[in-house]
Amino acid sequence: MRSVFKLFIVLILFASCSQKDEVKSLKLSHGLSLDHPVHQALAFFAQRVKEKSNGELIIEVYPGGQLGSERQSLELLQLGGLAMTKVSSAVMENFSPKLRVFGYPYIFKDREHRYKLYDSELGNELLLDGEKYWLRGLTYFDAGSRSFYTKDTPIETPEDLKGLKIRVMQSPTAINLVKTLGGSPTPVSWGELYTSLQQGVVEGAENNLPSFYTSRHYEICKNFSLDEHSAVPDILVISTQIYNKLSSEEKRWIQEAAQEASVKQRELWEIAEIEALTAIKKEGVKVTYPDKELFKEKSSHIIKDLEKTEPELYKTIQEIKNLGNE
Q: Averaged over 184-211, what is the pLDDT?
């Protein structure tokens, strides 16, 4: 918490130096590289806000974790020391419990099923759940499906995960899923993962194809298994302490630009997935296509158990599944 407080003081000082003239500037933090499709969508978002406001409202995008990890950024948002951030819903679930739903295995049929949820009333309800915790979701960014990748052992069945130290996000749901499948879940921040793989702190991880490629994890991990066990979206979040001080016009600029950026990001993401798969194969990564039914069967009780232990969460998962049948 001390590091978050220090960041808060620094950002307040920066803010005091930028409140001149009529231009309002808001800082947006994320942990991805410049060539990642989500960063490109955020740059598009910033440009659209500038255009809509005729330069009166500027979004300053800080990539690569310059302003802290995803969790640190969310804590800064709660304090009002940072305006916006892009986070995985898996990290956000520590602040907004309803978002745990995205971490459960095999609840989506395909990409269109995910889009249907993001654009639905239920999707919007989940997006805004964080307002109770001073975190307002603006839009979803699709992050595809998550799969396992490893340094040495190809993952073709759940048994291949047994005893392997697999990096997971700081998410109780992700930890439980990897443990259920037989792995040894090890929370590591995204910015520290490359080094952790190099040094053997972890033996593998799980993520989507574009993130695996743009992070250059293929330099260390030469096995990628497309088991697609979960689909965890990214969320663009704004501090309610900042948002509530904006004029209705400023709120409209931001919300409209966020929706446009979400559409743009889907286009970028679909291209990035194809390019990443081709690129990692050229880099010598062995891509396997395991029988997903084996992973579904091994993890199915996680959702079944919720019917008794957390009926509301179970109901939400069933609603999401039903969207895929409409």
A: 97
In the chain, the amino acid numbered 162 is: K
- Domain borders along the chain are 2-143+233-275, 146-231+282-323
- Claim: this prediction has a pTM higher than 0.85: yes
Strand order through the sheet with 223-230: 184-187, 165-168, 204-207, 146-150, 223-230, 286-288
Q: Which CATH class for the 146-231+282-323 domain? A: alpha beta
CB neighbours (10 Å) of residue 83? 25
Superfamily of domain 2-143+233-275: Bacterial extracellular solute-binding protein, family 7 (3.40.190.170)
How far, in Å, are 61, 183, 207 from residue 47 at the CA level? 10, 42, 28
- CA-nearest of 175, 126, 120, 186 to 150 is 186
Which residue type occupies 149? Y
Question: What is the per-residue pLDDT for 16?
Answer: 38
The count of other CB atoms within 10 Å of the CB of residue 19 is 9
